[in-house]
Amino acid sequence: MAKRYEWVRVVPSIVWALVLAVLMGLGVGVHLVPLDSLSRFPVFQDGIQAVAGQRYFLGDAWQWPLLDTHSLLAPQGASVAMTDSTPLLLLLFKPFVALLPAGFVPYRLWLVFCFLMQPVSMVLALSAAGERRFTALMSGAILALCMPFFLGRIIHLSLMGQFLLLLAFAFYFSLVRGKKWALGLTPIFLVICLLIHPILMLLASGTIAAVALTLLCRRAKAWREVACSCGAGIALVLIVSEVLGYFRYAQGAGGYGLFSMNLLSPFWPMHSDLLAFIPALHYGMETQSFEGYSYLGAGLLLLLLCDVVFCRRELLSVMWRHAGLSIFLGIMALYAVSNTGYAGPYQLWHIALSPPLADVFRASGRCFWPVGYGLLIAAIRLSRFIPRRVGGSLLIICALLQFLDTRSLRAQAHDLWKADFPVTGVTRSLTGLIGDAQQVALYPVAGCGLDLYGPDADRIMTVFRLSAEQNRPINTFYLSRPPKDFACGREKPQADQAEGTLEIYVGGLQPAANRHCQDLDGLKICPPS
């Protein structure tokens, strides 16, 4: 009997950890994001933006550049990279669009994949760092899957791909240990990150580039080949960006310092179940409450506290041995706080100068994500210096606390993805009018008076959603960056209504007298004559 089960002991702990991580991530993903309908739109603004881009792209013929669809900003077209529609996903599915169900959009499959990859990537990162303890690998997987700022980001589809940051740590540790395969794969990995979201690419490239600085601090000659690999990666990213048309759009939208991280955010238990008795954090700016949400979770905070108390010397030693990574994460933490620093409601500093890439990292609170994951990896690895029985029990307790602390975040995600739009008389009428038209023209256009955050926001997003559902080209849309050649003077209603075009006016803008229009729930609807 003992020989029969001997293979269980022979299989490495990382294999068991990966198998369990896949099952755990897949189970959580399918539970939180039901796959009963692969054509239904999300009920929130960012989700409508991303999924409308997916629907338009898959419903259109191939264009050049490859990520363009002529159905957005018709007739000129726009890139779905600017709708945060996870371009890599669309490039993979588009060749098979004839085999897909009508109205198919892949975002739910993507979200389930993100939940699957989050614990798997954590196991790979820990393994690359030298971790072999099964308890540590599984505890790390649970802590990563229950990271509050991961679960709280579920309304932003592309940025749920935070597993890429964990894979970047796996690349970091592999390169530090001299793994040659990582040198060749780094450029490909960075392009993959770009095609999911440029911010993830920038954060991942910084994490990997920190290898060169770490090796330089160690006076290891291998830093040169790592620098060459990172340089090749950045060059390839720039070439792909140019070919796919990324540079046709404004590189910044302003706002650095507004969407920053509050200094108390990582430690203050916002949206915590176990520490719900602690009052809510009062932000200095309300814009910090979402983009700056960086709570680490009760389990990770306890583990970090124990490491600081019992492993101070080892912590300092690790920081020195990985000096490049420590410097990069320190810079990212400062970047996240921004040039206007707040602790709770109190402003601690304001610096008029903005750092490099401020427009790109305008939602600077996101820069804390690699810091949070770096702290998680460090906390797991340092636990090996705690006596074995105590350390193993501590890891299990911390993983359990992290899971219990994030129950409400998972419940909110589950309810959010089960929700659907109510069918009302207004939506039925608007659906019919859009279906009878060949294209839709909404005025004023985005960037020229269309208020996407004002009292008409729901009406505007309804027009976007219903137009995408019926694959009707639309003249304007909610883009993360406008085209460089965009000019409001060219985006006004024509003197005569174009044939087959349904014109919709919102806000205070009134249609010309030669239109035959009707009022519908605050919208001026002008069907084609």
TrEMBL record:
Membrane-traversing stretches: 7-33, 107-127, 134-151, 157-176, 188-216, 222-247, 293-311, 323-343
Pfam family membership, one: DUF6311_C
Protein name, entry field: Glycosyltransferase RgtA/B/C/D-like domain-containing protein
InterPro entries, A to Z: DUF6311, DUF6311_C
Keywords: Membrane, Transmembrane, Transmembrane helix
Domain DUF6311 residues, every copy: 24-407, 432-528
